[in-house]
Structures are given as C-alpha cells and as structure tokens.
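User: I'll paste a sequence; please echo it back and then give the predicted structure.

Assistant: Echoing your sequence first, then the prediction.
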Amino acid sequence: MSRNNQETRNSEQETPSRLFTAHCSLLTERMRSKRYQATTKALQGSKIVPLAEGVQALKKTSTVKFDASVEVHVRLGIDTSHSDQLVRSSVTLPHGTGKTKRVAVFALGADQETATQSGADLVGGEELIAIIKTTGKCDFDVAVATPTMMPKLAGIAKILGPKGLMPSPKNETITTNIAKIVGELKKGRVAFKTDTTGNVHVMVGKASWEESKITENIQAFLNVLTKLKPSSSKGVFIQSVTLCSTMGPGIRVSL
C-alpha cells in the first residue's frame, strides 16, 4: 500500500473517533448547569493566578445555596507504578476543615481516661469492639488504637477496613500518645495520599470563611507536601495546584 493511501486510511479511521470526542464534549457542556457555565465564563482568560487571587475567585464563583467545601487538588510528578514514589502523610490545618470529626479510641485502663479528657467521642476496649462486631455500625470518622489493642481489632477488621477506619501506623493512628493524636484530630488534622493517577486531594475549609483562613490552610498543606518529594522522583514534584469549591469550577494557582 502506498504512503498516500495509508495516510488516507488512517485519516478515515480517526475521523469517527474525533467526531465521537467532539460529540461527548458538546453533550457535557449542554448538561452543565447555567450557574456552572456562568462561573466558568467569569474565569476565562485566567490560566494560572497567584494563590490570593485564586481564593478570591473561588469565593466569587461559589454560588450554591449551602456552605460549599473548599478543596485543593495537586498533580505530582511521580510514577505511581513505583511504590517508593507514593506519597502519604498528614497535616494539622491551622483553622481545621470546617467539619467536626468523631474520634473513636480503642484503649484500656488509664489510656481510656486520657482519651476522654482529650475529647474523644467514643472510648472503649473489648466491649466497644463487641458492639461494632454485633451491629456492624461505626458511628465515628476516624479510629485510634494503642498497640496492645491491635490484635483485638482483628475481629472487626472486615468492618473497619472497607470504610477506611482501620488504625494504621502510616497515619499515626496506632500510638501510645493518645492525648497528642486525639488533640490533633479534633483540631483539624487530615490525612492524605496519592491516588492511582498521582494526584492528591484535600479539603481545606469552607467557602464562607475569610480569605485569610482559607489561604493559611492551603499554605500549611502545601508546605508539608513540598517536603515529601521521594528521592527517586525526578523533575518537578508539584506540577499543578487547582482550587475548587463544591460544584464549582477549577482554578489553577501558582505556588
């Protein structure tokens, strides 16, 4: 087959795919609400803006009738097929997330009293494990356990695990310092990790907050994330940072 004929054939094969992609894009645009289209139009011409301007734009474009959450989405320059490049850590945001977490502590003896005094919502040992095992219900957002309680939690691992509630040394929820971890969790400590595409997603506040509070939370998160670059990762670590509110458009900001 001649080169011209081959190019013609390839072009004919690509045309349906291109038409399908264009058709999907048109349908997506039509399905988006007028509110979303209006807010997106207001951002046209702004590709990457300073963080302060990005927060201002986020507040202006958050037009939903409820107090929208503010999220930060960061694309990292890592290869997720290499386990040594996966990023996982936590940060205590100076102004919390705007969402109160219910903390459960699995401990015995004096550690139970410490957990209660530190503000834990549920505190117990084997009796709490038995209740969860019987009902299958977990009325809490995060679980903390002392090392001695971990073997006993094996009986409810199938309940806690799928809900992301199993204590783990990776997020420091297996600890002997109950007061410290419970205090941080109640103040706004959030855990984060890379997804399968090398992105990190974190909730950093509410759209109704003052711009300074949102900005300080974002900066606190980025300061921690910047220090987590794997030694085997080459090139630019933080490739892009995007802000958005619930049901709002994405706003790319510079570091």
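The CA atoms of residues 54 and 100 lie 26 Å apart. The chain has a mean pLDDT of 85.
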